[in-house]
Amino acid sequence: MKHKLFEPYTVKNVTLKNRIVMSPMCMYSSDNQDGYAQPFHLAHYESRAAGQVGLIITEATAVLPEGRISHEDLGIWSDEHIEGLQKINEGIHRHGAKAGIQLAHAGRKANLRDEIFAPSAEAFSSSMKVPTEMTKEDIKRTVEAFREGARRSEKAGFDVIELHGAHGYLINQFLSPLTNKRNDEYGGTRENRYRFLREVIEGVKQEWEGPLFVRVSGEEYHEDGNTMDDFIYFAREMKSQGVDLIDVSSGGVVPAAIDPYPGYQVTYAEQIKKGADIDTGAVGLITSGNQAEEILQNERADLIFLARALLKNPYWPKEAADELGYSLEGPRQYNRAW
Ligand SMILES: Cc1cc2nc3c(=O)[nH]c(=O)nc-3n(C[C@H](O)[C@H](O)[C@H](O)COP(=O)(O)O)c2cc1C
C-alpha cells in the first residue's frame, strides 16, 4: 500500500520529509510580555520535531506589538527577537524537520491594554475593545511590518513563511465584507478588500524567496460573508502573486456557533485546490493516519495540518505510521521503543 502521508513534499527550494504539518498554535508563553521566546518554546517545538513531524509552523507571531492577540504572544517586531526564534529553529532542524513561522496581526481581536487597530471601528463582540479605524498611514506601516517580519524570519533561519489570513485577524478583517466597512480603495468590492493582502504579499516577497503559505478561513458562517467563489478568487490572486499553498481553516470572523465533526474543514481545502488549481493544506479534527491518508490519496489536499492531536501526542506521526503499517524512522535514542 502507498503511504502518501509519508511521501516527501517539495515546495520551491524546500523538501519536507513527509506531509505532516504542526498547525500554528498560540502558546501564550512569552511570560515577560515582550514577545521573546522562552525555554518552554524550545522544548515544545523540538519535541514535535523529534516526533518526526515534517514541517513545524510556530504559533502566530506578531509583526507589531499592537498586533498581538495577548501580551504573552511571540513577537517579531524587532531585530532582538531574531535570536530566540533562531534557537527554536535549531531545535527543529536537529531532527530533520523544517520550520515555518506564522506572521500575524490580530487587528480588532487584540486583547491588549493599549489602543488597537482594524479596517473599521467595530468591535468583535461587546466584551472586546472598539478598534481605531486604520488610516492609509497605519496600513502602510503595517504592510511594512510584515515585510520586516519576513526579513527577520529569513535571518532566524525559517524555511517557510505562513501569513495568518484566517480566524478573523487583521488580514481576514480586510478580506471579509462582515468586518471591512471602508469606503476607500481598501474596502467595498472583493478586489478592494484583497488590496491589503496583495500589498502584504508584495512586501513579504521583497525579502523572501522561499515557500509562502497563506492561511484563510474558507467559510465565515454568516450569510453576508465571503463565499467559496470569493475564496477561489482570492486564491487565484494569491497564486498569481507567487503564493505556494493555501492552508484552509474556517470561522472566527464574527461570533458564530460551529458544530465541528471529523474533517469538517477538508471540503473547503478541496474546493479551493480544485477551483484555483493551487496546493492546499487541510486542517480541523484530523486525528488518525487513515483519515489523513484518505484526504491525500483522494487529492483533496496536499498537506495535513494537525493542532490538538499533536498537542496531545508529540509522537503522533509514529502512531499514524503504525496504523498505516509504515516503518517510520525515529530518533536513534528511542530505537528500543520505536
Ligand atoms: C491552543 C491552540 C492555539 C491555536 N493558535 C493558533 C494560531 O496561533 N494560529 C492559527 O492559525 N491557528 C491557531 N489555532 C488553530 C489550529 O491551528 C487549528 O487550525 C485548529 O485547532 C483545528 O485543528 P485541530 O482540530 O487539529 O486542533 C490554535 C488552536 C489551538 C488548539
UniProtKB/TrEMBL annotation:
Keywords, ordered alphabetically: Detoxification, Flavoprotein, FMN, NADP, Oxidoreductase
Membrane-spanning segments: none
Cofactor: FMN
Coiled-coil ranges from the UniProt annotation: none
Sites where the protein binds substrate: 28, 164-167
One GO term (biological process): response to toxic substance
Limits of the NADH:flavin oxidoreductase/NADH oxidase N-terminal domain: 4-323
Enzyme Commission number(s) from the entry: 1.6.99.1
Annotated catalysed reactions: A + NADPH + H(+) = AH2 + NADP(+)
Gene Ontology molecular-function annotations: FMN binding; NADP binding; NADPH dehydrogenase activity
Lineage top rank: taxon: Bacteria
Amino acids binding FMN: 23-26, 60, 102, 215, 307-308
InterPro entries: Aldolase_TIM, NADPH_DH_bac, OxRdtase_FMN_N, YqjM-like
One Pfam family per UniProt: Oxidored_FMN
Top-rank EC class of the record's enzyme: oxidoreductase
CDD domains linked to this entry: OYE_YqiM_FMN
Similarity field: Belongs to the NADH:flavin oxidoreductase/NADH oxidase family. NamA subfamily.
Function: Catalyzes the reduction of the double bond of an array of alpha,beta-unsaturated aldehydes and ketones. It also reduces the nitro group of nitroester and nitroaromatic compounds. It could have a role in detoxification processes.
Assembly information from the UniProt record: Homotetramer.
Name of the protein: NADPH dehydrogenase
